[in-house]
Amino acid sequence: MGPSPRPSSASLLRTRPIALGGVLAILLAAGAGAGIGAAASAASSRPSLPTIERQVMCVTCKIPLNVAQSPQADRERAFIQSLIDGGQTEAQIKRALVGQYGSAVLGLPSTHGFDLAAYLVPLAALIALVAVLALLLPRWRARARVASAHRTAPPPLSATDAARLDADLARFD
Amino acid sequence: MKRRALPALASLAGACLIGLLIYGVSAQSANRTLDQQVAQKRYPKAPDAAQALPLLQGPAHASLASFRGRVLVLNFWASWCEPCQVEAPLLEHAQRQLERHGGTVLGVTYLDASPDSQSFVRRYHITYPNLRDNEGTFTHSYGTNQLPETFVIDRQGRIVAISRGEIDQAFLNRALAVAESS
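^ inputs. structure came back:
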């Protein structure tokens, strides 16, 4: 079987529109898919009360709103629901909550005073852990290397065994 | 020596964490410096007097400094606070008395949505001005972390009486007499 014939320029012209059409069709389909996906995600990203409740605090009970049971928690829920009904996004609702109840409603530690420890302590712990590992890992590896070297080295053969081995090998030659 | 370094460092880190915990607990507890000074009749200046806060009704801002020269009954409240509901008529009555002498009650809402505060104002026919402290910084500078609390401030801007809890007429009479005479 010979090499396949080089396509003529005419056949190239014939195949290019087909190929371009295919690419266009794929792109259009992808675009439509993306559009549908965006619409679907927009619909799904519309905030719901349980979603917001999980992310904010009951400001008087000092616990997450989704587990709070108090008249104030109910008022916060009603306020959030009114914003959801007004078509506001999650970010807008959070901004409105901060505007009414202060940043304490988000339940995030502030970046000054004692609250700063909430950010610094985990960071310091991570650095300490990395430092300890950097200190200990080379030692552990060196120790493991020495131990494995001891484990893998075969015991020396006795003179009798060596002679028997030589004899066995000579028989196979 | 090297073998002891790691346990020593771990112990040090543990001690630091315990120290941090103790500091955190003490930092969270309410500051009672103002109460001690008032009890010793040293009448401290009202903290954060220059801090401007938004008015509950309307876009304007005001600070304690804008009431300087007047006897002031500074009351921290929220619509969800039941004792605040009990003392609201008493404060409104005091407002009518104070107005005649150029004084005023000044409410400050804390951790309360403004629609709720506004409906509280309407329900109890409150006529005195109210400010919103939604971040709580002004409120905390008075050592307030529970509601209601009331501070009586004289014409020089000094705190002459403090009530950490619901007020009564006797407290107001006593406090206002001190404020008027100082």
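The two ends of chain B are 68 Å apart (CA to CA). Helices of chain B lie at 2-28, 33-39, 82-100, 114-123, 137-140, 169-181.
thumbs up if we can close this ticket
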